[in-house]
Amino acid sequence: MNHEPKSGSPEKSQGCVVSTTVVWAEEIRAPRREAEGRSLMVGTKKGKYDIERLKLLNPNPTGNLFIMSREGLMDEARMLLNLCESCWQEALLTYCIGEKIKVVFLDNLSSLCWGMKENEADSWEQVLSWLLMLRQSGIAIIIVHHANRDGNEMRGTSRREDAADWVIKVSPNFKFAKIDKGTAFTTTFTKNREDNGDHEESMDWTFVTEDGKTNVNWKLTDLETRVYELIKSGVEYNTDIAQELNISTATTSRYAKKLINDNFIKKEGQRHVISYDHYPR
Question: pTM of the full predicted structure?
Answer without folding.
Answer: 0.71
